[in-house]
Design goal:
This protein is mainly beta. It has a single domain, classed as Beta Barrel (Thrombin, subunit H). Helix content is about 10%, strand content about 45%.
């Protein structure tokens, strides 16, 4: 099965909060791209669910972003954590620039 992603992923571990109709999850974003991110959590949301993301980057104020759950992984193994893939939605130009900065910092 081929990779359907439009954007290259970068392995980055960033603290995050997800807010949805189901409540709030504190977790870690495991990778990020210009199009979205993967959130590691043993209790992923529902596919299609809209979420508010608070992303913490070192030395900066948290960023509030909007997203939609595109896929979930309920089981995990030694290589893959349980969690969900989230696509960013309605990003402003400033938010796109900030994500680009996150991607290009070590």
């Amino acid at each position: 099965m081929g990779d359907k992603r439009k954007f290259a992923r970068e392995k980055k571990e960033l603290k995050s909060e997800l807010h949805s109709e189901d409540g709030m999850i504190f977790s870690t974003a495991r990778d990020i791209s210009e199009g979205g991110l993967f959130i590691s959590t043993p209790v992923p949301g529902k596919k299609g669910q809209e979420v508010d993301i608070r992303l913490y980057t070192p030395g900066k104020e948290p960023r509030n972003l909007k997203g939609k759950v595109r896929w979930i992984r309920e089981d995990e193994d030694t290589e893959n954590k349980a969690g969900m893939g989230i696509e960013f939605v309605d990003l402003s130009d400033d938010e796109k620039k900030e994500i680009s900065k996150i991607l290009h910092t070590s």
